[in-house]
Design brief:
The protein has about 280 residues and is of the alpha/beta class. The chain is built from 11 helices and 8 strands. It has an 8-stranded parallel barrel, surrounded by 7 helices. Helix 8 packs parallel to helix 9. The radius of gyration is 20 Å and the shape is globular. Keywords: Cytoplasm, Magnesium, Metal-binding, Pantothenate biosynthesis, Transferase. This is 3-methyl-2-oxobutanoate hydroxymethyltransferase. Belongs to the PanB family.
Length: about 280
Amino acid sequence: MSAHPPVPANSTSAAQAPGGRVRVHHLQKAKAEGRKFAMLTAYDTMMANLFDESGIEVLLVGDSAANTVVGYSSTLPITLDEMVVFAKAVTSGVKRALVVCDMPFGSYEVSPEQAVTSAVRLMKEGGVHAVKLEGGTYFAPHVRALVAAGIPVMAHIGFTPQSEHALGGYRVQGRGDAAGALVEDAQALEAAGAFAVLMEMVPTEAARRVDEALHVPTVGIGAGPVTTGQVLVWQDMLGLGGGKGARFVKKYADLRSIVTLAATAYHQDVVSGTFPAPEHEFED
């Protein structure tokens, strides 16, 4: 595996926030100037702080915490109360990055009013700077209501995990003629006020059509290299889960092996009596 040196937070290849926090308009400027930005999930203070210091522009408090942290079989069971806790943990560890929080299943679908009520909790109690919701044109009124309430919104189209049962499982979206509908969804969400549109598991050419049709930046996960931003689940990016992983994931480390080796060594030291050693003891 090749080495990937850290990129300083003030790198000119990233969305800039001179002397302060990354804001929505910095992401817009990145698209206008043909620059890229990086986005990673985060669910706790320590990892959020590490990613923030590494120069990652956007942190997503993802409902993927349902799988990676809580151990649910899908994202559907995670609650708004749980997301507030994760959001608070992440924002406590961040000084620079823009923090976006997923609105969990059941927290916004009923009405635009429900969406605003839920998002206000994420901002007031969780301290996040923006929210993300899944769905196409049908949710444009929800986006419009959120933006009118002063809540920045990132839209999410393509494969939307909260709708996995309706979509027939984890399947690529936007192939062939369906690409046109993807563009229409993206344009409707932009018109409603979304500051960015995330596309998941769509063909590169479809993602290109969407990106070229929008003034706001796009973010991709399994959408090829044509978007302004890219996002990955951090446990996938660092190889914590093991196994082959999804096609669109690049592993930058084998954290599972590193943690397993360290935990095994600790266990051996404890059972053999070599830890704690004299240097770990307190004297009278």
